[in-house]
Here is the input.
Amino acid sequence: MDSSDQARDIRPGEAFDSAGVEAFLRDSIPGLQGPMAIQQFPSGHSNLTYLITFGDHELVLRRPPFGTKAKTAHDMGREYRVLSVLKAIYPYCPRAMAYAEDTSIIGCPFYVMERIRGVIVRRKFPPGFEDSPEKIRNLCRDLVRVQHELHTIDFHEAGLENFGKPAGYVERQVNGWCKRYREARTPDAPDCEDIMAWLQDKMPPDSDQPAIIHNDFKFDNVVLDPDNPGKIIGVLDWEMATLGDPLMDLGGSLAYWVEKTDSPEMQAIKFMPTDTEGALTRDELVRYYAELSGKTVDNYDFYYCFGLFRLAVIAQQIYYRFYHGQTKDKRFEAFIWGVHALDKTARLNIEKSRM
Here is the structure.
């Protein structure tokens, strides 16, 4: 099994003006030699990611998906700026190399960063992990540790105090994702109104220790050392990063964490091998985060339910683009089943909740 992130031919309808990009990059990044080649990374469902090579020099270009407005949910300039600041204090960030606000180049803003070569965990853990539950457990713990490390950064000292608005964060998130779901709902999607009402009723107050949060922290957004795949060396996909409640960030991670005992619907839509022997359970993940942070996670049910609902909204927004013909990517057709599975799981969580 090849666990590295392999670029492939560009999908139909997702190519761009390579001559304009080449001219911009040669002007912006010193030392680029040789002809330019472009391929596309096939994974990911939001911003589009391309591999650009000049000889042995590898760069990664990120741009918004087609059919969206870049300055709203897909702000390339914002993502570029946070990487530029964080790299010096959070070494897992890719190095930001160039940003183009000029939409005449490819029709939207985009940015370019270094490529972090390594192993990406997707459907399976890397070779050598299959028969080692202890290795898997330690890697899960390292994932939690690296997420917590991000939450410990002093964003004032980093100069990122204007990167978000911690005051009112939870309320804005709940109300904002409810609004997004209603706007993206298609006739074949569940209404989720009772889930939204529960979240609005049970939301906790603002955190007294707001932090830089990633908002999509999961195994397939981290890079493992190719020579030591038990070690995380990179964190990718910073498009939703902001300042807010770190437990909301944790809740987003929990939503991706499918266990052996979860429903067949959740097993069917899982993207990562978190149900493998040795992997932490969600309860264990929360307890380890609490141990690292010194926080008491009293509202676990709320954060997990919010994470499930937010993931359902993201899936619905992606499906909306397919439903309305804004993308030809056939992967997105099945996302409606994910929305239904997440809706069902959130309802079960609410029924069992102690809140």
Remarks:
- Strands lie at 36-40, 48-54, 57-63, 96-100, 110-114, 211-213, 222-225, 228-235, 242-244.
- Residues 133-352 form a domain with the Aminoglycoside 3'-phosphotransferase; Chain: A, domain 2 fold (CATH 3.90.1200.10).
